[in-house]
């Protein structure tokens, strides 16, 4: 499990993300996301994931997504040199709702996950509240800097039910219709078998929209994970 691996070292880790979207039709969008995480700052890499899926925009404030991915975790200290400790296939369904308070954009994300491991099957439920505030603009558009933050809780259907909390604080810059970058700080707290531990990360995300000029749906910049 990636959370257990994270907890084994207290070093400030790195968390790198590339997410790509392409508009298939006015209401449909395909996405792909790649992630690579390390125990220390850009060394001792211990985790990667590859995932993708399809989104359907019900209207400008509601969207539904179906996704699937592969998640691989290596044992401490990382660097892909140790045996694999986590090999997960995941399928999920997600509803996202946007609302606005003047310039502040809020995103409420509700997700249900089905997770398969070599050791068995698990369910998980996630809720993320994400907020972004454009600087010098009324919305996030080309050449717009912004600040962003989110908090996400992870729950299971078995006691003790609480599994993880993830917090992000950072900023970003929407370069044009197609490219945005978002650096920031992530703190992830994991709770397993009566024990809890946290891990600090520097996160850097590259966001690509291959058909951004044609996308009619305003989005809050965020990771797809």
Detailed description of the structure:
By secondary structure, the chain is an all-beta fold. The chain has one domain (2-214): Porin, CATH 2.40.160. 3% of the residues lie in helices and 70% in strands. The chain contains one helix and eleven strands. The chain has one helix at residues 2-7; strands at 13-25, 28-40, 43-59, 62-74, 84-101, 104-117, 120-134, 144-155, 162-174, 179-192, 195-209. It has an eleven-stranded mixed barrel. The longest helix has 6 residues, at 2-7. The radius of gyration is 17 Å and the shape is globular. It starts with a helix and ends in a 16-residue tail after the last strand.
How would you summarize the topology of this molecule?
Layout: H1 2-7, E1 13-25, E2 28-40, E3 43-59, E4 62-74, E5 84-101, E6 104-117, E7 120-134, E8 144-155, E9 162-174, E10 179-192, E11 195-209
End-to-end separation: 16 Å
In which order are the strands of the major sheet placed? Answer: 1-2-3-4-5-6-7-8-9-10-11
From the alpha-carbon coordinates, what is the Rg to the nearest angstrom? 17 Å
CATH topology tier name: Porin
Number of H- or I-type helical stretches: 1
CATH architecture: Beta Barrel
SS class: mainly beta
Give the averaged pLDDT, no decimals. Answer: 90
**Total domain count:** 1
Q: What composes the largest sheet?
A: 11 strands, mixed, barrel
The helix content, as a percent range, equals: under 10%
Total number of strands: 11
Strand/helix succession: HEEEEEEEEEEE
Shape: globular
Contiguous low-pLDDT stretches (5 residues minimum) are 1-8
State the CATH class: Mainly Beta
Percent in strands: over 45%
């Amino acid at each position: 499990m990636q959370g257990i691996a994270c907890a084994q070292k207290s070093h400030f880790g790195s968390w790198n993300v590339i997410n790509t979207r392409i508009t298939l039709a006015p209401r449909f969008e395909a996405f792909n996301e790649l992630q690579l995480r390390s125990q220390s700052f850009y060394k001792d890499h211990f985790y990667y994931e590859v995932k993708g899926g399809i989104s359907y925009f019900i209207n400008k404030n509601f969207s539904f997504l179906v996704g699937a991915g592969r998640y691989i975790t290596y044992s401490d200290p990382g660097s892909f040199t140790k045996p694999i400790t986590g090999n997960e296939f995941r399928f999920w369904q997600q509803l996202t709702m946007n609302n606005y308070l003047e310039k502040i954009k809020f995103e409420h994300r509700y997700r249900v996950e089905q997770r398969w491991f070599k050791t068995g099957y698990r369910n998980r439920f996630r809720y993320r509240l994400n907020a972004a505030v454009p600087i010098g603009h009324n919305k996030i558009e080309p050449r717009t800097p912004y600040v962003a933050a989110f908090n996400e809780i992870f729950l299971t259907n078995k006691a003790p039910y609480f599994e993880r909390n993830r917090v992000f604080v950072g900023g970003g810059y929407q370069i044009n219709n197609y490219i945005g970058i978002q650096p920031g700080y992530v703190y992830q707290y994991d709770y397993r078998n009566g024990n809890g531990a946290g891990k600090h990360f520097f996160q850097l995300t590259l966001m690509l929209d291959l058909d951004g000029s044609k996308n009619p749906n305003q989005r809050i910049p965020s990771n797809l994970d």
